[in-house]
Structure to design on (315 residues):
């Protein structure tokens, strides 16, 4: 059987289902690190109970500048709040293993979103800011958050929803300043051929060449229908010795003004997961609008019980 790491799903989706109003908040789920960290921990536990091996911290939209602007914290207080995101994920993992008869290795991934997440204008899905920023400026922006997450003791970093090759290159370069830290890198893509900014996906993933710190590279927060074609296109001309990661959203469309649209277009992850494995994905999960039940169904497909047909062996 092919070994696949199963990621958690939409943290904000579950927080909103619990009654928290996050849409339109410039800090998104990161605000709850300040107001209700227990709610985040509860969601982490739900995903672990559903089969997830990997928890991404609630720090995607957590930045020193963001916390200063929207919570009126100073630099030290803002940094401590990023540490809280790591601590509650670790607590959820420890408590799960204490209570579970079957212990499992749980990976804590420190989430780092793109600069566009701070802008809170939907530009992580366009990369519109990239042409006005240098690689060094992008590195300078991400450095403080990366430093906080590394010093908090994450197992690895999740460099996610990156809309452009340029910002990906900046993050890979910055990662070298933390030589003992591993990471995955996943792009935001709005078509079956290119990143959200318009870079050819097969070219963009080559930022991983020569990196011994990236354990996986791929795509997140796009339609599940995009993942297969994107990975297949990149496989044609790439000789990367690295595993793919895929954790799309539910297939619905995000509108910055209206929120998620197209509820009738939701696509189960299970419809495509075996194909992703066959294409080389070894890290699979869900992003926005995916729930613990989606992750539980994913585990059933990727880790069938004895007596079930294991489609992942048919490679």
């Amino acid at each position: 059987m092919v070994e696949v790491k199963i990621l958690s799903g939409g943290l904000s989706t579950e927080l909103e289902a619990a009654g928290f109003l996050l849409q339109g908040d410039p800090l998104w789920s990161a605000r709850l690190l300040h107001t209700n960290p227990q709610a985040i921990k509860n969601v982490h536990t739900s995903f672990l109970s559903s089969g997830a091996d990997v928890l991404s911290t609630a720090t995607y939209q957590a930045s020193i500048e963001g916390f200063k602007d929207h919570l009126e914290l100073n630099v030290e207080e803002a940094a401590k709040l990023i540490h809280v995101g790591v601590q509650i994920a670790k607590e959820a993992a420890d408590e799960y293993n204490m209570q579970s008869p079957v212990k499992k290795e749980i990976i804590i991934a420190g989430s780092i979103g793109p600069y566009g997440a701070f802008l809170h204008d939907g530009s992580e899905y366009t990369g519109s800011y990239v042409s006005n920023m240098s690689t060094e400026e992008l590195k300078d922006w991400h450095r403080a958050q990366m430093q906080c997450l590394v010093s908090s003791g994450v197992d690895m970093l999740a460099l996610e929803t990156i809309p452009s090759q340029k910002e990906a290159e900046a993050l890979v370069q910055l990662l070298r300043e933390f030589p003992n830290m591993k990471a995955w890198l996943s792009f935001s893509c709005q078509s079956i051929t290119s990143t959200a900014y318009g870079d050819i996906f097969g070219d963009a993933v080559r930022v991983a060449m020569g990196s011994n710190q990236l354990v996986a590279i791929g795509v997140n927060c796009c339609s599940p229908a995009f993942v297969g074609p994107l990975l297949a296109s990149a496989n044609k001309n790439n000789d990367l010795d690295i595993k793919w990661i895929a954790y799309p959203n539910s297939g619905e469309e995000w509108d910055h003004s209206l929120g998620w649209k197209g509820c009738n277009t939701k696509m189960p992850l299970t419809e495509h997961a075996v194909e992703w494995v066959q294409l080389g994905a070894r890290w699979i999960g869900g992003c926005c609008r995916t729930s613990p039940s989606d992750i539980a169904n994913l585990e059933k497909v990727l880790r069938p019980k004895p007596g079930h047909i294991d489609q992942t062996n048919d490679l």
